[in-house]
Amino acid sequence: MSPVEGSIARANRLLVLDDDPFIPRWIRKVAEHEGYDVSICTDLTTIRAVHRSARPTLILMDLTLGGGYQGLEALRLLSADRCTTPIILTGSAEPGVLHSASRFGMTLDLSMAGIIPKPIELGQLRRSLAAHLHETREVSTVDMMLSSESTDAAQAVSKANAAAADEARLRQAFEADELRVYYQPQISLRTGAVVAMEALVRWQHPLRGLISPNSFLANAERADLIRGLTFFVLEQALDECRGWARAGQPVAISVNLATSLLREPTLPDTVEGMLERFHVAPGCLTFEVDESAAIGQVHDVLDALTRLRFKGCRLSLDNFGTGFSSLVELRNLPFSQLKIDKAYIHEARTHQAARGIVEAVIEFGHRIGLEIVAEGVEDRETLTLLKEAGCDLAQGFLISRPVDAAAVSAMLGATAQPVAKPRALGSRAN
Q: What Å distances lie between residue 171 and 46, 156, 166, 218, CA to CA?
């Protein structure tokens, strides 16, 4: 087998880093069936060149590449190459070792997207590939012209030019009314009723169609557009929340909040004014804050978090398990909700260690008064497991993919049982 196989014709490109003589070929067949174009790299020395030429949208890496744990060295090489592609680790090591390696990747500023222990289960591989299928990053026209023989300096200049062009185009998207807000339902695992909607931004690009936020949020941060983007989503969500309540189908909403906004002294008062303008009760609004960002900067953002809670809003610690916080730390923070990262949810059904972690988080979270949400629920077995563990809320493709406001209205109107009212502040999980 040559070090590099495959092409980059499709928009979804998988790079498999594995020197096993059989598994990469099997993964190729599965991934191509799921809609990926696949490249295979078997040699540690060629990883950086392959990464540049293949331009993958997802990487599947064997931790034991080349014997021993040379996958760790591969992570260092990808970090040196400024890789931003999501990476899934595989390997025959026990899950704890894989999780530790994944955390190591995070310290290198790599986008670690979970683990798949070997022997790889067909269903888990398909679910992981499907989850990332529509999360491909935008590739600029300039970047598409780069070859593997391009120099680092040429790549840096081209990428800088491409980034500037992408940022300018994103600014135009605001003026051209190309941004959309989609909603993913959260259901109560006790009643089965829809109780909340997570608001998610999308870009209706005139040429590329509907683009997920993974493709442009980094550009929004660099171009200082994240504030405008966040308040655009918040206004749209509050307006829809008011409309659903007037139609007799009240649901809460949750909006992702960048930590950079939490440093704004006026943020809590601005939010309070918006809630009053749209006649939405503060307890119906939850702000989701990413764990890895919030915990690392907690002293900088604690003032805003505390004042948002005083205003009556709820706070959710998103992607719990991807950072370095502990449940003990959460006792002294004003969060009212915790969202278990989907990587643990995906593995809970098939791996005992992941299931134990999920169950422990749910139990201890309840003990300190947190409402627990499981994200990334994609099969009924996992849903049943979460119910048995006492999880409060769930969201994921099994329940519904993100949909537009009209589809939400239809969904709520067709609900066989009444939609539960948003949980009031002062209840157990506030």
A: 38, 23, 9, 13
Least confident of 2-6, 179-183, 404-408: 2-6
Q: Are 316 and 286 in contact (CB under 8 A)?
A: yes
CA distances from residue 322 to 26, 153, 230, 299 in whole angstroms, order as listed: 29, 33, 23, 19
The domain locations on the chain are 4-137, 139-166, 178-413
Q: How far apart are CA 135 and CA 117, in angstroms?
A: 23
User: Given this model, what pLDDT does residue 392 score?
Assistant: 97
**Looking at residue 266, what DSSP letter applies?**
T
- Higher pLDDT: 261 or 292? It is 261
For domain 4-137, give the CATH number. Answer: 3.40.50.2300
Average pLDDT over residues 383-396: 96
DSSP letter for each residue of 34-92: HT-EEEEE--GGGHHHHHHHH--SEEEEETTTTTTTTHHHHHHHHHHTT--S-EEEEES
CATH of 178-413 among 3.20.20.450, 3.40.50.150, 3.20.20.30, 3.40.109.40: 3.20.20.450
Spatial contact of 41 and 20, defined as CB atoms under 8 Å apart: no
Rounded Cα gap, residues 147 and 163, in angstroms: 18
112-121, 163-172, 241-250, 365-374, range with the lowest pLDDT: 163-172
Among the listed residues 49, 285, 279, the one whose alpha carbon sits nearest the alpha carbon of residue 150: 49
DSSP letter at 154 equals: H
- 145 Cβ contact list (under 8 Å, min separation 6): 158
CB 272 within 8 A of CB 306: no
